[in-house]
Amino acid sequence: MKKLGRLLTAMVTPFDEEGKVDYEQTKRLALALLNSGSDGVVLVATTGESPTLLREEEVNIVAGVMSAVGDRGSVIAYTGSNSTAEVLEATKKAERIGVDACLLVVPYYNKPTQDGLYQHFKIVAESTSLPCILYNVPSRTVVNLSADTVIKLSQID
């Protein structure tokens, strides 16, 4: 497994004047961040406009940045959702593109129990060879991933 590095920057997603994703500027920004000392970039998470992007746009952003970055740094793709099936699909696409890890948000809206959270993340972790980074943001998801659940999840190979 590749070391992800110590400084991973959550990258914004640039848009053009018409409100469309500016894919070329996205690549330039990723390279600029790596050239400025970041060890890697985190793409299409909340800082990168995940709530407003189509999955196709997310895939295109990740693929474009991967092609531009090469081995210059780590690329982490946000593949989270409150739908386990959608997370599985997005994570498989990210893995095929060649990202170094995936970022998974705590499922939101339906307020799962700790066991529900465990099952969600376990299913995803067992479906991929990618390292999974847990994204716990209770102020947005209204659910807090407990330390006990994280410890239990850390036992998954």
TrEMBL record:
A Pfam family recorded for this sequence: DHDPS
GO CC field: cytosol
Molecular function in Gene Ontology: 4-hydroxy-tetrahydrodipicolinate synthase activity
Gene3D superfamilies, per database record: Aldolase class I
Keyword terms of this UniProt record: Lyase
Database matches in PANTHER family: 4-HYDROXY-2-OXOGLUTARATE ALDOLASE, MITOCHONDRIAL, DIHYDRODIPICOLINATE SYNTHASE
Protein name: 4-hydroxy-tetrahydrodipicolinate synthase
Organism: marine sediment metagenome
